[in-house]
Design goal:
This protein is mainly alpha-helical. It has one domain. It has eight helices and two strands. The protein has a two-stranded antiparallel ribbon with strand order 1-2. The longest helix is centred in the middle third of the chain and has 22 residues. It is globular. The termini are far apart. The mean pLDDT is 91.
Length: 191
């Protein structure tokens, strides 16, 4: 699935624990995106595509961080970066990471029909490759439907709780966004 879907999945999961603060919600949200940092190799591939020695980092290394080992590291970082509710942040970061893997197993087939396997036990073993023969295309309607549902959930959470993912960037922008949503979607009072 695309990074936005992973982002909103992490955000919705982070809101399953109302006691988490801004920092902890950001940890859980970003844990759902972090496995795709290995996808940045696509930039190097593109930049060197016409050179005598083009890099193939994306094709060689994409999904290499989609492993249990990296998931444990992400969960551990969640514990150490969190200021409060450390274990909740740790466990939800670990879960957010694994939801990313599940989403990729379900819907990350490339345009060439390749099902990206997830080498779950790397770097210790290459034996367990998570894949599903029914994996839908990255641009399949299922991914759009899931992303749409997550956006609706994100807007509802912003409206009902008073904060949105924008809180990770700017408290002021977050407050304006929430005020706008509440104004737009609040029942009108008739006099």
């Amino acid at each position: 699935m695309n990074p936005l879907t992973h982002f909103f999945t992490g955000w919705v999961l982070a809101n399953s624990a109302p006691s988490l603060g801004t920092r902890e919600r950001a940890i859980v949200t970003l844990a759902g995106v972090l496995p795709d940092v290995d996808g940045l190799g696509a930039i190097a591939d593109w930049a060197t595509r016409n050179s005598t020695h083009p890099l193939e980092w994306f094709s060689r290394y994409h999904h290499q961080l989609h492993s249990l080992t990296f998931g444990v590291i992400v969960g551990g970082l969640g514990y150490f970066i969190a200021r409060k509710h450390r274990w909740t942040a740790c466990l939800l970061a670990f879960a957010s990471f694994h939801l990313h893997l599940l989403e990729d197993v379900l819907g990350a087939r490339g345009p060439d029909g390749y099902n990206w396997p997830i080498p779950y036990l790397l770097p210790f073993s290459n034996r367990l490759q998570l894949t599903w023969s029914g994996q839908w295309a990255l641009n399949g309607w299922q991914n759009f439907a899931i992303t749409g549902a997550l956006l609706v959930a994100t807007f509802w959470l912003a409206w009902s709780r008073g904060y949105s993912p924008l809180e990770m960037i700017s408290k002021r922008a977050d407050a304006r966004f929430v005020a706008t949503i509440r104004q737009r979607f609040s029942p009108s009072k008739s006099h």
